[in-house]
Design goal:
It is a single chain. By secondary structure, the chain is α/β, with parallel strands linked by helices. The protein folds into 2 domains: 2-180, 3-Layer(aba) Sandwich (Rossmann fold), CATH 3.40.50; 193-281, Pantoate--beta-alanine Ligase, Chain: A,domain 2. Helix content is 39%, strand content 19%. It is built from 10 helices and 9 strands. The chain has helices at residues 7-21, 38-50, 78-87, 98-101, 119-123, 127-142, 154-166, 200-206, 208-221, 226-239, and strands at 2-4, 27-32, 53-58, 92-94, 146-150, 177-180, 244-252, 266-274, 277-284. The strands form 2 sheets. The chain has a 6-stranded parallel sheet, with helices on both faces. Strands 7-8-9 form a 3-stranded antiparallel sheet. Helix 7 (154-166) links the parallel strand 5 (146-150) and strand 6. Helix 6 crosses helix 7 and helix 9 packs antiparallel against helix 10 (226-239). The longest helix is centred in the middle third of the chain and has 16 residues, at 127-142. The termini are far apart. 38% of the residues are buried. Bound molecules: adenosine monophosphate. Adenosine monophosphate (AMP) binds next to helix 2 and strand 5.
Amino acid sequence: MQTIRALNPLRQACAHFRAGAGPGAKLALVPTMGALHDGHLTLVRRARELAEVVAVSIFVNPKQFGPNEDLDAYPRQMERDSAALVAEGVDLLWAPDVAAMYPDGFATNISVEGVSDGLCGAARPGHFDGVATVVCKLFNQVAPDIALFGEKDWQQLAVIRRMARDLDLTAPHADDIIGVPTVREADGLARSSRNAYLSAEQRAAAAVLPAAMRRAIEAMLGGANTSAALAELREALLSGGFASVDYAELRDAGSIAPLDAPNGQARLFVAARIGGTRLIDNMPVA
Ligand code: AMP
């Protein structure tokens, strides 16, 4: 695996790997912020199945963190990550530092309306602008044929697809942005780099999140009133050890518009805090 930290060598390495893989070969990009776990590695394995050349980026993007968020505390473990990616047969690790990604004078912001509204867009102002801006840069830097993202961050996936469509991106084309189902622990908790912040007690309590979501989905599909099911879900989280609930909402899976009742296209989205840690999850209501 070649590890690259500057843009010119990255471009040369992409050209080199493409030439080596031959005509028609595909290059896949898996963007991450590192602290890799089985969720990330599932994206990498899927990339390996779909493309001849696999590039992974690790960049803790300051533009997607709010002023009071966990940018400084965010886990950084480059050596371990790098070993995990070598074991998965990754060809190229793109690991720029902040100055390489945002040189002095950087002044551009990509803001995607509509799908960014509400949920994490409301709870974390500026977050999706930061995501869209860095992902657009990563796409232009690596020029992949396909890019893979986790459904764990469903709204993020919707924002990135919208951006790719609206900006007529071709590397990758919006249709080649691939969502990968959420990887969960045995008790149902979605794998997340932020799970590392949880104490043993908090980690055990956190399993109430997917369990309460499943119960709410069953209730809604069984004809229960949506707001009553969501209120019960909030209550289950608060009485199960969560300190607060940022949101628990039913939304359209594609447009992310709010829904009053399940319609076959609905997804349940939740963000809640346990101790100082904010966890998110989403599931289809179908
Ligand atoms: P992050 O490093 O948190 O920015 O995540 C990098 C990519 O991995 C994003 O596309 C995430 O949606 C995806 N990802 C994170 N956790 C999971 C998970 N549990 N299952 C599937 N994909 C995930």
